[in-house]
Amino acid sequence: MPVDAFDRVQLDGTGIDRITEAEVVAVVRDALAHGRGGRILTPNVDILRRAQRDDECRRHLADADLIVADGMPLVWASRLSGSPLPERVAGSSLIHSLSAGLGLDGRSIYVLGGVPATDDSTPDGATRAADKLLAAYPGLRLAGTACPPFGFDRDPLAYGDFCAKVVDARPDLVFVGLGYPKQERMITRLRAGLPQAWFLGCGAAVNFVAGDIERAPRWMQRTGLEWAHRLGTEPRRLAGRYLRHDAPYALRLLAQAPAQRARSRSYLPE
55, 65, 69, 185: least CB-packed within 10 angstroms? Predict the structure, then answer.
């Protein structure tokens, strides 16, 4: 199943692949079998908003081989615009489904991110997340883990050491859970050294798998309320972004979608 087999839905100038989670896994497995690497980007409302004014964000989107909708407002907007996306495809779900798929092929993952260890007796978040993935998905192999400390990206030597460690491990798939845009910047750098690997910037997914942060119940994920659960668990970090910036943008995106549908109909031949 080739990457270009899926068309893209345009949402406020950003193309989102019309693809299901199961199809993402099939694309990655097929590409790896043929020696092709790639990059999955999972824009949510915040990234879609940033793309309107941020050149770096647009470069990351342009470099992605698959762009999937990690947010129910994006799915709702696509339906209102008349070009429906099939489902939400969250990075927090893909870390599991991709691990399961790669396990079937005996392939390897590298887990980067998570909460640093507080003492020598406790493994860091990346290690605990990797252990849980390997226990859950038979056949999956571990190429390595890394849990960079806060601020490591401001030290060129430390940053280079972490990147070299990942490249030297030669993984098939790298989960980078550093939050946006740190994770996308690192993926851009790593791709040059690992052209045959796949990359997923998965935000808090490493913390979810490790058990350091509780993910929202499934009914909240399905109904578009996962943001409310995240806000409740990390209010200090997320309140400003969610309430001041993302919520107004999401409402505008939904309000504009029917007009896009009307414009599309006006171009249809009579």
Answer: 55
Q: Residue 179's closest CA among 236, 238, 132?
A: 238
Q: Check pLDDT > 60 for residue 8.
A: yes
Torsion angles phi and psi, residue 18, rounded to 5: -85, 90
How many structural domains comprise the chain? 1
Domain that holds residue 183: 3-266
The type of residue at 139 is G
Could you tell me which residues come within 8 angstroms of residue 65 by beta carbon, excluding any fewer than 6 positions away?
A: 3, 38, 39, 40
pLDDT at 267: 43
User: Region 144-157: what's the mean pLDDT?
Assistant: 94
224-240 residue pLDDT tens? 777 777 777 777 777 77
Contacts 24+ apart (CB under 8 A), 127-134: 128/209, 128/210, 128/211, 129/177, 129/206, 129/207, 129/209, 129/210, 132/209, 132/210, 132/211, 133/95, 133/96, 133/99, 133/109, 133/209
- Give per-residue pLDDT as tens, 96-128: 999 999 999 999 999 999 988 877 778 999 999
Widest CA span of the chain, in angstroms? 71
In eight-state DSSP terms, residue 70 is -
Phi, psi (degrees; rounded to nearest 5) at 39: -140, 130
